[in-house]
Structures are given as C-alpha cells and as structure tokens.
Design brief:
By secondary structure, the chain is an alpha+beta fold. Helix content is about 35%, strand content about 25%. Strand 6 and strand 7 form a beta hairpin.
Length: about 210
C-alpha cells in the first residue's frame, strides 16, 4: 500500500467523526467543546448546539452519534484543516495548521485550480473565499468524492466533489506518491544500475587492454 492508499484509508476511517472549530483530533467531550467555545466565541453557539449534553438534552454522552461505545469515549474531533493535516501526518507528510497557511506554506508537487484536478489522484482540495483566503479544506479521494469536516451540523462526511462545497483549488504535497510514479522511479533506478554496471565493465576491459 502506497502513501496515497494509506491516506485514503485514514480519511475514510474518520467519516462520522465530529466537526469542531479548533478540533485537533482529540476525543470529543463536553469539556473539550467548552474549551473550544471559549477559544472561538464566534462559533460558541454552534459548538454547543452540536452537543446534546451542552444543550441539556442528555445527561451522558452515551447514545450521541459522536460517542464510540466500543472505545467508551468520544470520537476524534477535527476542523477542516486539522483533518487534512492529520491525514497527511498519518503518511509522514507535515502540514501547518489553517487552510490558508497550508496553501501558502506546503511544499507542493502539483497545485492549481480545481478545473485542472487530476481526477484519479488523491489530492488536498481547498475553497477560496471572497477575501482571497482559503476558507475550507478537504481530501479528494481520486474517485469523484471528497472527505471533509463539513461543519458543526454535519461532522466529517464523504460527498461528491463540489456537492455544495465549491472547492476551487487542489494540491498534491511532495512525497504523496502514486503507483505510476513509483513505477517510473523503479524503471529509472534499474536503468541507472544497468548503466553503472556497463560503465564498470568498460573500465575493467579498458584496464585489462592497457
């Protein structure tokens, strides 16, 4: 399994997890939500609305769609850029926090407007807002669908690309390999090895003749 396949599997495993502004993959709990509400007051109402306990509709987390009963804890909570960041971290690629910062600071192997998106490649996708900043981020799986932390009301979802999300740009980070690139790299390695052997043989023959 190459890095793109590993990243795809990781992203799919997060579907059903909660969206939380400022969420960095820690288990969702009322206390964690309260801390993020204090950190991001503009999102506080939405943060609390997505939590039955905060809304006093439940006395425990059991039964919440974001509670993992088998693990007996809340599912990992992410915002959109932390989801892309942790997805790449799972395959050894480091990204900074924040969608705009990722777009500006990531070492990209390829990037461009969504119209040039390679449809069969795993990519990171971004949405540029009216202020010229990247207002959203997701993981395009290379099959017409994208996994992204959509918002407090939805959580982490898998949807068709641009299903109401209007992603505008894509990027493939350096180090995110693809099968065809691996094949080319292998052929180049074999060719270099063959050339090295030929050069050594010619040198040996020249030395013997001299």
């Amino acid at each position: 399994m190459n890095k793109a396949d590993e990243a795809r599997a990781w992203a799919l495993a997060q579907v059903g997890c909660p969206y939380l502004m400022g969420g960095t993959g820690k288990p969702c709990t009322p206390a964690y939500r309260s801390a993020r509400a204090a950190q991001y007051p503009a999102s506080a109402e939405k943060i609390r609305a997505a939590c039955p306990r905060a809304g006093k509709k439940a006395v425990s987390c059991a039964g919440c769609r974001y509670y993992d009963a088998s693990a007996k804890r809340g599912k990992p909570a992410y915002d959109c850029a932390q989801l892309t960041r942790f997805c790449m971290a799972a395959v050894g690629i480091s990204l900074v926090s924040g969608a705009t910062s990722q777009w500006k600071k990531t070492a990209w192997a390829r990037q461009g407007e969504i119209s040039a998106l390679p449809r069969d490649r795993l990519c990171l996708v971004y949405r540029r807002d009216s202020a010229g900043k990247m207002g959203h981020a997701g993981i395009y799986l290379g099959d017409g669908t994208v996994v992204h932390a959509k918002g407090h009301a939805w959580g982490v979802v898998r949807e068709k690309l641009n299903e109401g999300n209007r992603f505008t740009h894509y990027g493939i980070p350096e180090g995110l390999d693809a099968p065809e690139e691996n094949a080319v790299a292998g052929l180049l390695h074999d060719l270099r090895t063959a050339l090295d052997r030929l050069e050594a043989a010619l040198e040996e023959r020249a030395h013997a003749a001299g």
